[in-house]
Amino acid sequence: MAPAHFRLKALREAAGLTQAALAARVGVRQATINDIENGHSRQDTLALIDKLCQALDCEPGELIVREPKRRRGD
Predict the structure, then answer these.
(1) Cβ of 31: how many Cβ atoms within 10 Å?
(2) Beta strands in 1-74 (DSSP E)
(3) Looking at CB atoms within 10 Å, which of 1, 5, 46, 71 has the fewest?
(4) Binning pLDDT at 50, 70 and 90, where does residue 74 land?
(5) How far is residue 9's CA from residue 13's CA, in Å, rounded to a whole number?
(6) Which CATH number fits the domain that encloses residue 41?
């Protein structure tokens, strides 16, 4: 199994955004986006994800889900 990595640059470019524009949208510094894209950020988290995936025989994307937004009153 290949090590986990972020596909941020490809997704950002596909969305037509610069690092600065993406950083502004999510409220972080451009340097943070650059670090993630170049593999210099959150390596401890990626290492843990790799270990979990190996132990569970799954892919990183299977560990993360987005729950639907709850409507008021639900």
Answers:
(1) 12
(2) none
(3) 71
(4) low
(5) 6
(6) 1.10.260
Helix axes 19-26, 30-37, angle to 10 degrees: 110
Instruction: Identify the band that residue 1 occupies on the pLDDT scale cut at 50, 70 and 90.
Output: low
How many domains in the chain? 1
60, amino acid identity: P
Percentage, residues of the chain above pLDDT 70? 91
The answer to whether position 2 is within a domain reads no
3-state percent helix, strand, coil for the chain, nearest multiple of 5: 55, 0, 45
Q: DSSP string of 39-51? A: T-S-HHHHHHHHH
Tokens of 22: 């993406």
